[in-house]
Every structure is written in structure tokens, then in C-alpha cells.
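PROTEIN–LIGAND DATA SHEET

This sheet pairs a single protein chain with one bound small molecule, NAP, given as SMILES. Inputs appear in the order they were entered. The predicted three-dimensional arrangement of chain and ligand is reported afterwards as a C-alpha cell string under its own label.
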Amino acid sequence: MKLPTMNLDGKTVIVTGAGRGIGRTLALGLASAGANIVAVSRTQEQVDEVAAEIKEMGREALSLSVDVTKMADLDNMVKKTIEQFGTVDVLVNNAGVTKKIPAEELTEEDWDVVMDTNLKGMFFCAQKVGKKMIKQEKGSIVNLASVGSKVAISNSVAYCGSKGGLLQITKVLAVEWAKYNVRVNGVGPAYIETPLLTWIKDQPDVYSKITNRTPMGRMGKPEEILGAVQYLASDAASYVTGETIFVDGGLLSYGV
Ligand SMILES: NC(=O)c1ccc[n+]([C@@H]2O[C@H](COP(=O)([O-])OP(=O)(O)OC[C@H]3O[C@@H](n4cnc5c(N)ncnc54)[C@H](OP(=O)(O)O)[C@@H]3O)[C@@H](O)[C@H]2O)c1
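PREDICTION REPORTED AS:
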């Protein structure tokens, strides 16, 4: 019997928001697991740097400037991926933004930026890449959720709304596309040390609130998200769909 592994040898993986933070680490980590990477974000120089590092590892890489809220950019991303690699095996839907603003002060513009990126952008990335996967009758999509998908993060109404919605979209796509052998799952980090959360370092009271509420007593590191994403991307998870793995140092298990 040939046992499945978490090896990603020769697979084509698109990572959105790959220029920095968790996405950058995922792009490099999935490449070291054997994948060829399409690294996309709005800032071309950052994804170019990631692609250069991946090529140094001996893998193939393509870097593209893509705004996930723009449908033409997503069409171009899929077209260029197929032109270069002929297939797309995995999509890591990682691009995301937040606005730390009290609910009563949030503007329509703030709401739209968060929802357009985290929910609309995530869905249409999945849809456009998913169409190719449906034709191939094989694929794995991993959406970056958050503990904010499950519990309230104060001053983050749009963010938590978008990440709660992402959990539901993950399940609906998993149910609709299971018959095409396209799996759709999520990974939900808690507080991870990335540029998205640099503001926490400037607010010791917020930092200690987070670490006190986290059984493991610390924030996570981007590389600690990699294992869950790699597992769901790989054939080792061939019977897993509609699931979200929370990587949270125990935060969601904490009751009191
Ligand atoms: N950090 C955490 O503690 C944490 C916790 C839970 C969940 N998450 C989730 O994990 C994901 C990554 O977070 P992070 O902390 O690594 O964020 P980050 O450091 O701020 O990086 C976000 C990445 O997304 C890209 N991006 C933002 N808007 C985009 C758009 N419209 N089109 C294309 N790319 C876009 C950014 O590049 P450009 O600005 O150049 O486009 C950047 O590469 C997000 O979905 C976030 O919600 C993070």
C-alpha cells in the first residue's frame, strides 16, 4: 500500500498575499515542501523577492501584481498560471486586511475595504481557480480564517464579519465541489507576529490581554501556520473537506 504524504513535489500552488507576513512564509514553506509557487499581492517588488528566494531553492516561481478585489487581475492570475505551469493544484487564499475601529465609528469605506478583500476577493479567487480545478477533477483550496471567525475581537466588526463569512463559504464550496474532487478547507490562526499586527507591540495592555487569554501564553509565529496549510494542501488530507483547523495556542478552548 502506498501511504499518502505531505510532500508537494511538482504541485502548482498559488498563494495570495504572498509578499509579507503569513503568506510570505507559506509561499517559502510550501516551496521547500516541493511546490512550484505563484506568489501574488498588490506590491510587485515584495512578491518578486519571494519568487527569487524560491528559485534559489531550485523550484519554479512566478510573481504577479494582483489585487484580489479586481476581477481582471484574478483572470490574469489564472491565465498566467496555466500558461507557465499548465495546471493549478492548490490555492492558498491568504490575502487579508483589517480595520481596528469601534463599530459605531466604522465608515462605509472601511467596511467595503475589509469585505471586498477578505470575503469577495477570497470567494472570486476560489471561484476562478476552482473552475480550473473542476475541469481537472482535482484541487485543494485553503482559506485563511481567523479566531475572529468564531469569537469576537473588539473594534473588528468588519474583520470578524468577513472571517465568519469565510468559514461558511468554505463549507458551501466544500459541499458543492466535493463531487469534482476539489477540497476546500480553512486554517484559522490566532494572534500571529506579522506586519498586520505590529500595532499590538505598541500597546502593552492589549499584548498582555492576548497572552493572558492564550493558554500557551504567547503569540504565534508565521511558520507555525505552515504545517496545517501544508497538510490540507497535500494528498495526506485527501478525505478532508469543509474543515477549518485553528492554530491558536489553545485560545478557542479557553472558557474563563
Ligand atoms: N496575523 C495574524 O495574527 C492573523 C490572525 C488570524 C488570521 N490572519 C489572516 O492571515 C492572512 C495573512 O495575514 P498577515 O498577518 O500575514 O497579513 P499582512 O502581514 O498584513 O500581509 C497581508 C498580505 O496580503 C496582501 N494583500 C492585502 N490586500 C490585498 C489585495 N487587495 N490584493 C492582493 N493582496 C492583498 C498584502 O500585500 P499588498 O498590500 O502588497 O497587496 C500582504 O502581502 C489574512 O487573511 C489574515 O486575516 C492573520
